Amino acid sequence: MTALLSLAGVTAYYGAIQALKGVDVEVNEGEIVTLIGANGAGKSTLMMTICGSPRARDGRITYDGQDITQLPTHLIMRRDIAQSPEGRRIFPRMSVYENLLMGAHGRPAAEASETMEQVFGLFPRLRERRLQRGGTLSGGEQQMLAIGRALMSRPRLLLLDEPSLGLAPLVVRQIFGAIRELNRTTGLTVLLVEQNAFQALRLAHRGYVLVNGAITMAGTGADLLARPEIRAAYLEGGH
User: Mean pLDDT, to the nearest integer, of 164-181?
Assistant: First the structure.
């Protein structure tokens, strides 16, 4: 398989504090890859480092065969990469429709309209709420909107940061089901950062475990789910 995204020996710092310690991660074209780990392990930092903030101090990040390590964030995000960030960060005063249009900035109107229909097909609740302000949506609906907005740019790689955070189990299953369907039907490549290890590893083709800024384990989603140390650290006490 061809690596669409590759991190080799990547380190990142916040001031004097080292957040990433020589991280190696590969995401192949058409894969769903998940990064699991406890709070503070460096998962979101890794996601932000891919986007150029913070900047990788050492190592190399390549996307589609091109070195993007030192590119400014706005140029990285123009390379068919979209991010649905932790905390959703939708525009609360804008309607669902307007939020989605923001994700299609610079796209032809006909293409934006077609993509919006695809998003509505994936998340029918957004069609029902399309004239409602984003800030009045439920947490689950806001998460659907954040993902939908990212999809409006028609990305080749989708970076998803903690999509299940604070959501009810039924909503989590709906959102993960939508991600699986997108990957199956369009071949969308997904890098998923997630604390819900059970759902993430069930969804992903492959996974990495991040502990204190370093990768400690890697394998297929099924293999990692079956490992007793993963079950003890992340899955015991319910899903």
Answer: 88
